[in-house]
Amino acid sequence: MKALRNQYLLHADDVPTHWYNILADVDVPTTDVRRARSAAAERETGLLAPNIPLSMYRSSVGKDRFVEIPRQVREHYQRWRPTPLFRAHALEQALDTPAHLYYKFEGTNGAGSHKLNSALAQAYFYKNAGVRELTTGTGAGQWGTALAMAAQAFDLDCTAFMVRCSFDQKPYRRVMMELHGARVVPSPSPVTSTGRAVLGSTPDSPGSLAIASSEALEHARSLPGGRYAVGSGENHVLLHQTVIGEEALRQMELAGEFPDVVIAAMGTGSNFAGLAFPFYREKLRSGAATRLVAVEPDACPKLTRGRYAWDYNDVFGTTPMTKMYTLGHTFVPPGMHAGGLRYHGAAPLVSALYERRAIEAVAYGQNAVFEAGTLFARTENLVPAPESAHAVRAAVDEAMRARAERRSTVILFNVSGHGLLDLSAYDQYLAGVLPDHAVSDEQIAASLARLPDADDAGAGS
Amino acid sequence: MKALRNQYLLHADDVPTHWYNILADVDVPTTDVRRARSAAAERETGLLAPNIPLSMYRSSVGKDRFVEIPRQVREHYQRWRPTPLFRAHALEQALDTPAHLYYKFEGTNGAGSHKLNSALAQAYFYKNAGVRELTTGTGAGQWGTALAMAAQAFDLDCTAFMVRCSFDQKPYRRVMMELHGARVVPSPSPVTSTGRAVLGSTPDSPGSLAIASSEALEHARSLPGGRYAVGSGENHVLLHQTVIGEEALRQMELAGEFPDVVIAAMGTGSNFAGLAFPFYREKLRSGAATRLVAVEPDACPKLTRGRYAWDYNDVFGTTPMTKMYTLGHTFVPPGMHAGGLRYHGAAPLVSALYERRAIEAVAYGQNAVFEAGTLFARTENLVPAPESAHAVRAAVDEAMRARAERRSTVILFNVSGHGLLDLSAYDQYLAGVLPDHAVSDEQIAASLARLPDADDAGAGS
């Protein structure tokens, strides 16, 4: 066995100075007409209804290719970034593949996932806009943890409405948020009228992310200086995450290779965009044939089985509509361990790229995902988050295909977070009691039939 | 706020090539006379009774100052080492102290603590000596997790006997071990005669580390090719951990400072030795006045309130005796969250240094420790393991003293692991229900009165 290089590390000085704005390189129909209109009216306060600071909003609808990362945000990034890029030699050996497998690992920060990249940026912009408290709804808890930490760093209050059944089943996530100074409220709660209405009709409701988010939004609106912060989907969130791919570009250069395929798990799209968008730009520049693959769960297959349509972001249909790949805003995916991938739609930017075949998508069931996650843990000695294990599954399949076809392939994937607070899922997998959730064509068709009227909705496009 | 440098990173090529053997620089009475004698008889098998490969044993009783790290072990280290050294600017600001606080963080590997440094080395030596299975007893689970991972890396079987109450209360620790291929047996178990005897008299016994270790030892002896691997105390374990301090020496050089005080939590001593021993050597060389401080819990104060005496390593008095600071092998510390610090004695090497006042010791209660751990999590955004939080407490106190005395001090401490699998302890602290365990003088005196006869025992010194 010869010495193998496993780590490609950069220095804190190498943290990117700019985020990459893909709007400079791809023409995406703006989906924010109504919000852009209300922006003018709100310029005096610096806050955009319902909740986006104008400075943050502007940077994510413009056409500037590179958006400078504010000094204070970059300094926070420098406390743990650049994150490592690893060559997965042990996994390659286990798979007996000629493929070269590289992975970026975003789980090294205290919040344990890539979510902190955007949480810190948002906390900075909200703080500068005079906001005093951030609220959010959280299920799996990765976004809530990151937001709590970021709010604390910028001296903002933070309230997380946590889905009641998660609150009860995932005490460690609750403790993480409380440890970082957040108030965690089990949802449905008596704090909001939405919560009180649900509790009135169903006192023992287990809650849902839709209810929790609705409560968080209502609570934010009720507070002077309160705002609801979202963890994915919006252009600005995808923008913030591009630090992942910018670093990976440099690290692959250090490794002396360029990926043939770039893979990331797909929830709403911030993780996928974070890694893939900078490689999209590099493809355009160099003409490389690199494939960009989004990996979603069988239980929530918005790209592989959804429709590109105007739809709401929330189950109650109260938000502005967005053009996106969607399973319908009333689609309720089965409960599963990759809670971060359960959203019904894909981010507008990711949807637009998928529509024009600039990216690919693939879906997997839970057992296939945890099989790969377990193999990864046993070879690479890092337990991937259930969400991240989706990317591992696709990377393993690409590597096995390379072996079958006897060709070398360079594969880059993102391990967006660690799974140390999700070990019960691995426990169920090892015990052989993890269900695979199939979603029937009928369920999807029924949900798509409840999409808002396309003509009305399409008026803004 | 000016840009602050937080990370001092080395390259994988900078992983130390040698461990540091403090026996070259300090005259410690050998405590291994009986084992050294039996070594000769076992040379043919390469295995030393009861369980130490001769190659590993030799390297830790010799006088060579530097012991080369086997290539395969170093390659494994290079998969995650060098670990980062951080300047704790945020913690300094929170404390408003002129002190410079630096910490080494050993929680970046998949096992989550420094334990992996020795587990990998031991797995390598045992594998080379023809061993096929490693066993251990585990309570808190950090050592068990590291050993499972290391055994898997060197293709060895691994069985961990886990204290029954921990097995029930800490399912995530069990899952981590199983995920890395180990068999985890709740102890007392029907697998061994020790376990069967306990179960016979107490069917619902919650178990203890003494019982679990005894079961692991019996099981190892019953297997052809089985050996019991220990996670601290022995010279070779302390030797393996010195990679921490060797890296920290170089990183402090990068930072352009040399510590006035070096602080680490003290269980049996491998964590403390790992950071402090290389600085001890550097002190000897340069004449620096650096203080080396071991931090133990009030609930198990072997250095601050124990006696330097010959004693057994196990509660049943079956092991060879060792000259060490001890509370007596029958001392049972109160249950507490820093399970890794509950051992009754200090490693012989650490004990010898303490006896000659080359190092200091200080003890803290649980609430003081978790108060500091929480402050650290909230400022540095990393949740320290309960064990590591002891070092944080002492570092915070040194920094506050520096503020009171208006002098700058350079403080280096070790965060030996993360606390993500110990969040229930933080939950209790935040809820204000964490007990402080005082140990009475009477309890210690009674335990010390049961020490083995010093004259008999001292024969080997």
Q: What do you see in this structure?
A:
The structure is a homodimer of 461-residue chains. The first copy, chain A, has 461 residues and is of the alpha/beta class. Chain A contains 20 helices and 17 strands. In chain A, strand 14 (307-312) and strand 15 form a beta hairpin. In chain A, helix 3 (71-77) packs antiparallel against helix 5. Mean pLDDT of chain A is 90; it is low at 32-49 and 455-461. The interface between A and B is large, with 47 and 47 residues.
Summarize the structure.
Chain A is an alpha/beta fold and 461 residues long.
CATH class of the domain at 6-16 and 69-112 and 236-448 in chain A: Alpha Beta
The total strand number of chain A stands at 17
Largest sheet of chain A, described in full? 7 strands, mixed
Strand content of chain A: 15-25%
CATH topology of the domain at 6-16 and 69-112 and 236-448 in chain A: Rossmann fold
- Report the structural category of chain A: alpha/beta
Low-pLDDT windows of residues of chain A:
32-49, 455-461
Greatest interface: A-B, 47 and 47 residues
CATH architecture of the domain at 6-16 and 69-112 and 236-448 in chain A: 3-Layer(aba) Sandwich
Q: Count every helix of chain A, treating DSSP H or I runs of 4 or more residues as helices.
A: 20
Portion in helices of chain A: 40-55%
Shape assignment of chain A: globular
Radius of gyration of chain A: 21 Å
Give the strand order of the largest sheet of chain A, numbering strands 1, 2, ... along the chain: 1-6-7-17-12-13-16
Overall pLDDT score of chain A? 90
How would you classify the quaternary structure?
homodimer
Kindly, what is the distance between the CA atoms of the first and last residues of chain A, rounded to a whole number of angstroms? 58 Å
